[in-house]
Amino acid sequence: MSAGKGRKGSSTKRPMTQKQLADKLGLSTATVSLALRDSPMIAEETRKLVRDAMQKSGYVYNVAAASLRTGKTRIVGVSFHDIVHPFFAEMLASIEDSLSESGKAIFINNHGDDPERLRRFVEGLREHGADGLIVSPALGTDPEMLQLLRRAGAAIVFISRYLPGFDADFAGNADVLGMGIATRHLLSLGHKEIVMLGGLPGTTTGDNRLAGFRRAVIAEGLTWRDELHLPGAAKRIVGVELARQALSRTPRPTAFACFNDLVAFGAMNGIRAAGLVPGKDIAVVGIDDSQEAQACFPPLTTVSNHPGRIGAVAANLLLERLADPAAPFQHIAIEPVLTVRESCGSPGEN
Questions:
Q1: Secondary structure (DSSP) of 248-315
Q2: Which regions are flagged for Basic residues bias (predicted)?
Q3: Among candidates 186, 197, 185, which has minimal Cα distance to 244?
């Protein structure tokens, strides 16, 4: 068999080009290009027509080639300090749902409150020409690092935490209000010896929730003492240790206002370890309203922060910033709601 005969029939089908797809649909290549980038300049009906035709024809949109033409890579970084926390996991799922619909590729980072790990991630985003970053900054984050990313053309949105003095969009909790609601609930039950467990000073969530706790205590006419707050990381094991420390005091606290649900779960374990009953001997309030808050025993009274809504808002802020870089910055805090369950009791019931 000759070489020529051996090659007969072995040619591969060349992939469809964007121009061929446009000709097939009777549209201009510019319209198809904008539709593939999900541009709001193109009607949703046309965008759907192009997407459906692309799938049927096997056309693959070459993002790398498009980025050379547009200067946009569709890459968005998402960085949290505790990505395995149920609150942030739900938030991430919401962000991914929103951004994936807009054709964004998401790079995820769990910096664990280590500013060096966050720095390396941000440098990687700069090297890849990322379009944006949604970030809950680490304790001790250098603002200049984020400024360099912004000067490279990336949009920045803070989520849950923010850096005071750094102008950027923000989506998160109304932390002062949320902790105030939790504390006032305990005060309304007659508790006077309340200790706040958890929260790291120097972070906006830690500082703002402490401010909400302190304001509620003072507004009740009680004397503020710094020992009413036991700081610590937002972890279950930390809640156990902080509860142990608080329960060793005289007079013994009658209630704990916890930085979040994880600290509250740990605190209830610490209460049991001391031979006491959470919800009967010691009232406990958390913040987050995670699924476990409903399933634990006793079910936890907690403030809902709506992580799914926060994630969706953050994603929308990023898309709006990419569409209009000169627009005024927005600071959006989701209003918290208290859900009363069985982990609180009045001193008369204790």
A1: TSSSPPSEEEESSHHHHHHHHHHHHHTT--BTTTBEEEEEE--HHHHHSSSPPEEEE--HHHHHHHHH
A2: 1-11
A3: 197
Residue type, 4: G
Question: Per residue in 22-47, pLDDT tens?
Answer: 788 888 877 877 777 666 677 888 88
Answer yes or no: is pLDDT of 324 > 60.
yes
334-349 average pLDDT score:
80
How many other β-carbons are positioned within 10 Å of the β-carbon of residue 81? 26
Round to the nearest angstrom and report the end-to-end CA distance of the chain: 96
For residue 109, what are the β-bridge partners? 79
Over range 80-101, report the average pLDDT: 90
Give residue for tokens 């790398």. Answer: 64
Mapped onto helix, strand or coil, the DSSP state of residue 192 is coil
By three-state DSSP, how is residue 142 classified? coil
For the stretch 131-153, pLDDT in tens is 999 999 999 999 999 999 999 99
> Distances from the Cα of 232 to the Cαs of 136, 268, 347, in angstroms?
18, 16, 27
pLDDT of 185-202, one tens digit each? 999 999 999 999 999 999
pLDDT at 346 over 70: no
Amino acid in the structure at residue 177? L
Place of tokens 């309304």: 188
Calculate what percentage of the chain has a pLDDT beyond 70: 88
Give every CB contact of residue 7 below 8 A, 6+ residues apart in sequence: none
- CA separation for the pair 305, 119 (Å, rounded): 28
pLDDT reading at 121 higher than 60: yes
Find residue 303's DSSP bridge partners.
Answer: 287, 338
With vertex at residue 24, the alpha carbon angle to CA 19 and CA 29, rounded to the nearest 5 degrees, is 30
Q: Kindly list the structural domains of the chain, giving each domain's residue range(s) and its CATH number in brackets, ordered by start.
A: 15-61 (1.10.260.40), 72-173+307-334 (3.40.50.2300), 175-306+337-349 (3.40.50.2300)
What is the model's pTM?
0.78
